[in-house]
Design goal:
99 residues; 2 domains
């Protein structure tokens, strides 16, 4: 499937391969299980600065306690550590951030 059709039922891996995705649902329906299966096999980094960009990796950020004031400490620091758009440094790996 090269294009996602609005309203189509597809597997999470197809959606994830097309770019960013959001998984919503009631407590206990399997949101964490879906995300865990999508990043299975990827090295899990404790801090994004550990990523050198040469291979795919995952940063798992616990978002349950995020507030407006804790965003920079808990999540913003991960985004700030990413290479700038158009940067030629690093490799061709993809960093997956799970919140």
């Amino acid at each position: 499937m090269s294009q996602l059709d609005e309203g189509a039922l597809v597997s999470p891996s197809v959606v994830a391969a097309s770019g960013a995705m959001v998984v919503l649902g009631e407590p206990g329906v399997g949101k964490t299980s879906v995300l865990t299966s999508l990043v299975e096999g990827l090295p899990r980094l404790e801090e994004v600065w550990e990523w050198e960009g040469g291979e795919d990796a995952c940063v798992w950020v616990s978002g349950g306690d995020l507030t407006e004031t804790s965003y920079a400490d808990e999540l913003g620091c991960h985004f700030e550590a990413l290479p700038a758009a158009g940067s030629t440094g690093g490799g061709a790996g993809m960093l997956t951030v799970v919140l």
